[in-house]
Write a structure and sequence with these properties.
By secondary structure, the protein is an alpha/beta fold. It has a domain of 290 residues: Metal-dependent hydrolases (TIM Barrel, Alpha-Beta Barrel). The protein contains 10 helices and 17 strands. Strands 1, 2, 3, 4, 5, 14, 15, 16 and 17 form a 9-stranded mixed β-sheet that branches. A 5-stranded parallel β-sheet has the order 9-10-11-12-13. It has a 3-stranded parallel β-sheet with strand order 6-7-8. Strand 1 and strand 2 form a beta hairpin. The chain starts with 8 loop residues before the first strand and ends in a 20-residue tail after the last strand. The relative contact order is 0.20. InterPro entries: Allantoinase, Amidohydro-rel, DHOase/Allantoinase_Hydrolase, Dihydroorotase_CS, Metal-dep_hydrolase_composite, Metal_Hydrolase.
Length: 438
């Protein structure tokens, strides 16, 4: 079957439907899942994938594409290719680090123009709250310096003003909650203690309870605020929380001196903390897992000096989220149904796209990832599709190979090759009552 062609049906011995894995044929019509049958006589346009797993495409709700303005860091063309190669069928682009940031309607339309004709997967967009733009229906804000001057952090007064504007709008506010020898990773880690996240999240939970605006904690790195989050939820706070692949896959004890490709903010913490994050995932205390794909150019990573204090804080992993998660999760008793829940369904719900993305069922977009959860592969530079091939995962062996990705019934990726032209479309995140993300 040629890349870009319309797929009428996908047959597999392992189709993930709800919590069950069973033989089935997914019938596709007009880009939507028409029905799912246990048997079928379909022959024309059928993609038979044997015993490869067929499941909903991944929805990555936290990606920094950096276009316009910083296309030397990344861009829609390369980011969405990396997404397709990793079984990600929908990304949601963050309001920074593009120039201009997505903090006004005009800037949003500029980003849409830049993205047009460049997306290999479907793409939605978060907006941003900065001082003075609370009347904009923005979504993400920082409680400390964001790392770029054009996206300043907010004060408590700004937060209260934003919450008042968002009450009843259905918007979600995403909040970033963190604040010797610079070549030693421990020096950097000590400069970003857990208490920074704890106190920032305390502020978020109080605001969430006060205004009853849906709030979302992005890139949770520390397990210590989990009790605060649970207490707020039990008191009625409409609060959700994500963590990322790097906090679940990497630990501070194993980061070599000068290895600035491991730097991110908040930082990668110790192995005991990591196990607590995994336990919270299993218990449902953490709702979803995302990439927080945040690339930059090699010079900004300070690989030559190995100075953690000066290096850009961000990790590129958009293409490898599925195998990264599965390689660690399966050892801890997670099932394939947990992969869909944490990487597809819950992220789609956060974005208000869960009526079309994140599940296999009649009426949903025919977004499918076809992969082998048993097969191993090594991450090599030549197989990386994001623009700058800097990642702490180079040379590691993972389990879970993506064979093909189907976007709204079209074959957009297959075994290292892509459809000749981008087929992704722009998605608008619908407003929901009393929703805010922080």
């Amino acid at each position: 079957m040629e890349l870009g062609s319309v797929v009428s049906a996908v047959r597999s011995k392992r189709v993930l439907i709800g919590n069950d894995v069973r033989p089935a044929v997914v019938i596709i019509k007009d880009g939507k899942i028409h029905q799912i049958l246990s048997e079928s006589n379909f022959s024309v346009g059928v993609l038979d994938v044997g015993d490869s797993v067929v499941m909903p495409g991944i929805v990555d709700s936290h990606v920094h594409v950096n276009e316009p303005g910083r296309t030397s860091w990344e861009g829609f063309w390369t980011a969405t290719k990396a997404a397709a190669a990793g079984g990600v069928t929908t990304i949601v682009d963050m309001p920074l680090n593009s120039i201009p940031p997505t903090t006004t309607l005009g800037n949003f339309h500029e980003k849409l123009r830049e993205a047009t004709g460049k997306c290999f997967v479907d793409t939605a967009f978060w907006g941003g709250v900065i001082p003075g733009n609370q009347v904009v229906a923005g979504f993400k804000c920082f409680l400390i310096h964001s790392g770029v001057e054009e996206f300043p952090h907010v004060t408590n007064c700004d937060l209260h003003a934003a919450m008042k504007q968002l009450q009843g709008t259905g918007s979600v506010l995403l909040q970033t909650t963190e604040e010797s020898d610079p070549s030693q990773y421990s020096t950097f880690l000590e400069s970003r203690p857990d208490v920074m996240e704890v106190e920032a999240i305390r502020t978020v939970t109080e605001l969430c309870l006060q205004y009853q605006v849906r709030c979302h904690i992005v890139h949770l790195s520390s397990a210590k605020p989990l009790k605060l989050i649970q207490k707020a939820r039990q008191a009625g706070a409409p609060l959700t929380v994500e963590t990322t692949h790097h906090y679940l896959s990497l630990c501070a004890e194993n980061i070599p001196a000068g290895a600035t490709q491991f730097k991110c903010c908040p930082p990668i913490r110790g192995s005991n903390n990591q196990e607590q994050l995994w336990s919270a995932l299993k218990a449902g205390q953490i709702d979803m897992v995302v990439s927080d794909h945040s690339p930059c150019t090699p010079d900004l990573k300070k690989l030559d000096t190995g100075d953690f204090s000066q290096a850009w804080g961000g990790i590129s992993s958009l293409q490898f989220g599925l195998p990264l998660f599965w390689s660690s999760a399966k050892k801890r008793g997670f099932q394939l149904s947990d992969v869909v829940r944490l990487l597809s369904r819950k992220t789609a719900q956060l974005c208000g796209l869960d009526n079309q993305k994140g599940s296999l069922g009649p009426g949903y977009d025919a977004d499918l990832v076809i992969w082998d959860p048993e097969r191993e592969f090594e991450i090599q530079e030549g197989s990386i599709h994001h623009k700058n091939k800097i990642t702490p995962y180079l040379g590691i062996t993972l389990q879970g190979v993506v064979y093909a990705t189907i976007l709204r019934g079209r074959l957009v990726y297959k075994e290292g090759s892509f459809c000749p032209e981008p087929l992704g479309k722009h998605l608008l995140i619908p407003q929901r009552k009393n929703q805010a993300q922080l």
